[in-house]
Amino acid sequence: MAIRRSNRWSNKFWALVLGCVVAAGLSTVQTAAQAEQVRPAARAVDFTGAWQFALVNTTGEDAPQPGEHDPLWRDTRLPHDWSIGLDPVESAHTNAGTGFLPGGLGWYRKTFTLPRSMAGKKVSIEFDGVYMDSEVYLNGVLLGRHPYGYTGFAYDLAAHTDGKPNVLAVKVRNQVPSSRWYSGSGIYRDVRLVVTDRTRFTRHGVQVTTPDLENTVKSGFATMRVATTAVADSSAQAEIVSTVKDPRGRVVGRGTTRAELGTTPSTAATDIRITKPLLWSVEQPNLYTVDSEIRVRGKVVDTVSTRTGIRYFAFDPNNGFSLNGVEMKLKGVNLHHDLGALGAAVSSDAIVRQLRIMKSMGVNAVRTSHNPPSPQFIKACEEMGVLLQVEAFDTWRSPKVKYDYGRFFDANSSADLSEMVHAAKNSPSVVMWSIGNEIPDSSAAAGPPIARRLIDVVRAIDTTRPIVMGSDRYRRVPAIGSPQDQILQMLDGLGLNYNNASSIDELHTRYPTKFFFEAESSSSTSTRGYYQDPEQLNTGENYTPGRRNTSSYDNNLETWTYSGEYGLKKDRDRKWFAGQFLWTGIDYIGEPTPYDVFPVKSSFFGAVDTAGFPKDFYHLFRSQWSNEPMVHLLPMDWTRHKPGEPVSVWAYSNADTVELYLDGKSLGERKFDTKTTVSGSRYLETTEATGDDKTVTTGPYPGSYTSPNGSAGKLHLTWSVPFQPGRLVAVAKRGGVEVARDEVRTAGEPHALRLTPDRRITKADGKSLTFVTAEVVDRAGVVVPDADDLISFQVCGGTLAGLDNGRQESAENYQAPARTAFNGKALAMVRSGQSSVITVTARAPGLRTANTVVVAAGGRPGRAPVTAGPQPAPAPAPTADASYSGARTTIPAAMLDGNASTYWSNYYLKRATGLLPAVSRAHATDWVSLPVPGGAVSSVQASFLTDAAHALPASIAVSYWNGEKFVPVRDAKIEWGSAVSITFAPVRTDRLRLDLTSSAPGTTHGFLGISQATVGS
User: Fold this and answer.
1) CA-closest candidate to residue 386, choices 413, 418, 357
2) What H or E segment, with its residue span, contains residue 743?
3) Which residues contact 468 (CB under 8 A, 6 or more apart)?
């Protein structure tokens, strides 16, 4: 690439930067442990500050706590995930499933003092989540062990209250693999100190329900039943008063009950009438607050505030899901708990951003896959109107990976399940409890007794919500009396994972009293901005290093998966089907299907990448789930094409007509037909064979998914457009009137960086996050779709919390100060400090520098530190490159290793899925490039494979890199044979490229392969 000229910063900006003190790196430094003086002003005290952390090893080998003055100790603040700050590596203690990020053994410690005024108080410590195998010590005494990484727990503290320092120490051990996805490591959720009187509410001691709401609301009121559980160290006659406040904070009801309290917890309930209740819904998430007090002899001794909502819902086996009497589909997504570059460390701002992106796609529900969520996640769903299926476990007794929860299931599952239900029982968002996902034990004799125990645990706490599980073991109707049959009879409903249409119809017929939904749907994989084989319903993977991407045409599928369009149609056509949870809403770290090779470290399943940038898949679901007029063009890249090359252009839209223009010239309209399901719902779809369901053998469209109304079609519109640079515009129309438009433009050379923060005002609280999108743009401001510049970030007045670009194949550290752009974009997560102004600066060699300013409310003016650090060098280019490699064993480096048995090949065989046949179809063209060690070259020799799958190319064109682009050599002469020799006029270069044309494109025998290649002078 040509060297680019950097522009000068303005004098004003230099003055701002020079007014800051530079502090290198993102990590904190070692300091002596300081005792925090705790003076509780409330029942719960935030206990996330002033911790120290020591990473003892990354193997998980057991080890004692480091000594007090050991240099391993570093200052930190919770929540904290130590794994996300490590480099991804290949080792005996990492794997692709967890993103090649190490776990290990870590110790945390916090020194604190309590005032004498706390003598006689009940003091406890509460953890929302520690991953995993935690041990907690106070002043060297073990308080307890908690193995599960996803549930909260608490310990009573016999702490000093005489001014002596107390030392709280937490040992955390994450032996990888402990999960099938990236779990994170450490105290990754909040910690609080709870201080109460000896007469007090128990933990999770308030439960709010609204019995018979469906009927009472018709009469204009709701009955809010508040059940409180309390305890006293000595017997006490108590009055318990619960006060209800509406969403505006006005008192709308109060109830009182009396209880005789003692050392055994006692529960008392009171009913409170709420007139004209404001219902919680996905459109209007109205929230009420219940303040409960314990009064002894007229004195308030404990107070707990509980947030809840008033709503009713139903899962009907024949009519699907309804909320407050309104039928609706669950338009859901699965979300793992990692937050991209933040890892597992909980952040309310990051969670809210994720949910906003999901809601903009039309999402109304989330399945917490496959573990209980954080309190912050539940709170955000309540406030934003998102329904929740809360899930307990990914495994029961039989483990899926070596160190997972199966080791602890028998001893701990009842307690962990109880904790999950208690933690979320008052949330109006929660509409289902799930006792597990794809459980191997569920098809064994041990399964039904385990399921019975888990169901009983949930129902002992909450009888207001159905109990389900997610399963991949019901793709056929189970035999009567089998373990699967027994378990389904116990459950209220079942979440199906990747069932085809005929199988769900058969289950509905066999089990007419159970409700069904798709707990995991689709799993079509894609990479933002990458496109391959639009004419194929399923296509292979590229294994060339640096190009391990999957197609965004909704056409890269694994054997168990199906396209997003298929899942949408299957769900749409069945009123009784409650809805679906797409796998997944957002890419997550780990499980990099279809690749299992370093450095591919995140999933490809998401509609949105790990940085939060939407892929085309997002727009497919938005076109079906959102009522806001929209149209989206793909490919999103109108730059990387050859002149005249036919480009398959798709449009996703919820309008009936889309017209396409290139530089103002119409390329024609395409229209959806308006159709009606057998239950009377209208929808838009083309009418044509789709070839997407080989199980359909009858009817008008054999081999295609066919709706119960007899119709088949696609959810997108298509044009074939010969490429020419310019401006491609899609105009969506309803009734001939424009309602939305989208455009893509041809980009020029990279010229500048552009920064766009997601907010202009934040809080100067040391934890609030601003998400800054960085884009590489040309002189006209068009994002350059193939830009991969290394961008360095500097923050003044805050800190850099992490960097991401959404690229799945990357060995970059998430918390380094620099990140390459991926397809033109990168993301900086910026944490506020105590300053009133935060300035973010982005630089890349040869590009115009960009900066942006965010105001931090409540901050102080003046100088603030800059977070910066050494700029990492870009990854070295591979010794050989290729446009496409069909298998991990046939990458281009194999041409150069001197071993005749290894080779580069573009051959692939995509295995059959449940709906689609196997595919092996030679590309029309591909290219390989070779290094030129000496600089001067005039010939190249290549030994081509010829066998049942491979043939000699029909033609070969040679070009060389001139420092800016590949240009053709002169006077090329080819001597054909299995070993092809090409001579040409001498050139000086460091790389040659061979563009190869298949002799039989689209067949199973037209693939290309080279076993050895050399260049000569």
Assistant:
1) 357
2) strand 737-745
3) 389, 432, 433, 434, 435, 491, 492, 493, 494, 495, 519
Q: Mind telling me the catalytic residues?
A: 438, 520
C-alpha separations of 171 from 160, 183, 280, 324, 362 in Å: 21, 17, 41, 46, 42
DSSP 156: E
Q: Is 622 helix (H, G, I), strand (E, B) or coil?
A: helix
* Nearest residue to 129 (alpha-carbon basis) of 409, 346, 407: 346
Backbone angles phi, psi at 255, to 5 degrees: -135, 150
Least Cα distance to 420 among 379, 381, 463, 390 occurs for 390
Strand 850-857, strand 166-174: pairing: unpaired
Amino acid making up residue 439:
I
* d(C-alpha 552, C-alpha 143), whole Å: 51
Give per-residue pLDDT as tens, 141-195: 999 999 999 999 999 999 999 889 999 999 999 999 999 999 999 999 999 999 9
* Domain annotation for the chain: domains and CATH numbers: 36-197 (2.60.120.260), 211-309 (2.60.40.10), 323-626 (3.20.20.80), 633-745 (2.60.40.10), 752-857 (2.60.40.10), 881-1016 (2.60.120.260)
Answer positive or negative: Cα dihedral of 35, 39, 42, 43.
Answer: positive
Amino acid at 850: A
Short-list 327, 305, 324, 308, CA closest to 316: 327
Question: Which tokens belong to 259?
Answer: 């209880």
What span, in angstroms and rounded, lies between the C-alpha atoms of 294 and 206? 12
Closest CA to 814 of 56, 200, 82: 82
Return d(Cα 413, Cα 432) in angstroms, integer.
Answer: 18
pLDDT tens digits, 528-563 = 999 999 999 999 999 999 999 999 999 999 999 999
Q: How many residues does the chain have?
A: 1017
Instruction: Residue 906: name the closest of 993, 1006, 991, 992 by CA.
Output: 1006
Counting Cβ atoms within 10 Å, is residue 382 exposed (0-12), middle (13-18) or buried (19+)? buried
From start to end of 438-548, where are the E strands?
467-471, 493-497, 515-522
